[in-house]
Structure of Transporter:
Amino acid sequence: TAERIKDQNPRDQFKSQLGFIFAAAGSAVGLGNIWRFPYITGTNGGGAFVLVYLICMLLIGVSLLLVEFTIGRSGKSNAIDSYRKIRKWAKWIGFLGFFSAFIFLSYYSVVSGWTVFYSIQSFFGLNGLAPDQMGNFFGAFISDPVKPLLYHGVFMALTVFIIIKGISQGIEKYTKIMMPMLFVLLIVLVGRSMTLPNAWEGIKWYLTPDLSKVTAGVWIAALGQVFFSLSVGMSGMVTYASYLNEKENLPKTSLIVSLMDSAVALLAGLIIFPAVFSFGMEPGAGPGLVFITLPAVFAQMPLGSLFSFMFFVLLAIACLTSSISILEMPVSYLIEKFKLSRMNASLLVGAIAYVLGIAVSFSFGIWGDVTFFGKGIFDLFDYFGSNISLPLGGLAAAILVGWFWGEKEAVAEVSNNGTIQGSIVKIWFPVVKYVVPIVIVLIFLSNLGILKI
Ligand code: PHE
């Protein structure tokens, strides 16, 4: 019958290796790299943080990304079923990702909407404002009850549009255009920033590690950043990898994606810090760094609106290639489990996340006083998403692979039955079995405030 024929249709797949690399790197590169990384670096002491971040990325990040890729490609179905195929209980790792995806998508889309607004505003003269008015301007915009919802809607619609088109005609096609654009814009902006007067001060502050600043807290911050930035722990990468064929070299791909992700974060720092120092601003300004400090810098620069426009377009593109990976995760499950059409599944998840996002947006304004567990709605979502759900998902996936799946099967899958060799393949399993769980438990305890460092 029709149902059966539909079931037997081959799943959509990434058409090329490069297409998959762009899609996965697109998922990784986003607010995490361009908005979060610079301000976390700014508040954690500069160069020392950068060094620790790179160590965590290489040791933990690459391994966990490889865990998700491996589970996805071996399962060849939505994340929940991919986990279930390894151990029955492990479907709960997938369900955790499924629910977190709604939370992530809602607030990710709200903040991404801000970047769309800032792109348009830069074009039409955000730079008419004096530098010291940027804070008020930002505050007035995000607390408005209506305006941010419009941009949240535009951004969500774009995300849904791409996902309705599917894997090869949607995700692969669009990330293949957007990622190279992003790299070009990045390089132009780095060039502009590094040639500003006194740029060197910023570069020095940013890239000279002052080892006396490496505290346990810096390690924790760096690890959390690696999780968020690489999109691991929510099974988004499991989902993407489920659309891969057997030939793909997963160890190489996870290394390339991690390197691209770190490169974009490092370049974002090279845009922001030279500019911030050149204009005598504060690198440790926190989350407002990109929306308040940077526009203030642009406002004082020749051709500032042009560079401001380029920067926020860059950020919006990076957001879009990430948000589609968040949306695809639950959509793939709804399609395969409930036989929804791709269109209906995408619209359904997009609509629910949009409504949740309204609450997130209100929490910057009219619902500013609403708190749960002592946190506003945005903070609650961000805290649950980044500090609880991602580490928990990553921990569970590492335990599943290290302690249940077992070395023989896991390594056979990672190495395409022994045809791929090399140091990543060799150290991967012991790192996943021992190092990753221990380190995540440490982050976790400290985030819950149980471990005071
Ligand atoms: N990695 C994305 C970023 O850096 C965020 C993200 C997290 C995407 C989890 C998917 C899953 O912005």
In short: The longest helix spans residues 304-338.
